[in-house]
Write a structure and sequence with these properties.
The chain is mainly alpha-helical. Helices cover 69% and strands 0% of the residues. Helix 2 packs antiparallel against helix 3 (69-77).
Length: 112
């Protein structure tokens, strides 16, 4: 269950960032010379759904991986600026916060 949740979280972080890109392009087309709203109408709801999915997965990850409150808050806030979910995901991976299972404790060996 933990591995599946972690894979879903990583996929959601990437998808949310990609949807940001699509929405930004849609906004450029809407407010630029073409003045066409189709990109925002298509990618706005997609981004909104991925935003909510990412937020829910952050809460699931925080519980299953026992993230601290500050880490959980940073993960949630990273959904707001464009592409920040990618940076959080990489940071969390480097810190070992996305491990599928906790590393087993090494048995104590007697010295001597």
């Amino acid at each position: 269950m933990r591995e599946k949740t972690t894979r879903l979280f990583v996929a959601a972080a990437i998808a949310e960032a990609c949807s940001w890109l699509a929405l930004l392009v849609g906004m450029a087309v809407k407010y630029g010379p073409p003045a066409n709203e189709i990109g925002v109408k298509i990618f706005g709801p997609i981004h909104g759904g991925l935003f909510v999915a990412y937020g829910l997965l952050v809460l699931v990850m925080a519980r299953t991986h026992r993230w601290s409150l500050p880490v959980t808050a940073v993960a949630l806030v990273s959904a707001v600026p464009p592409f920040a979910t990618l940076f959080f995901e990489r940071w969390a991976r480097r810190r070992g916060l996305l491990r599928a299972a906790p590393e087993p404790a090494r048995p104590l060996t007697p010295v001597g």
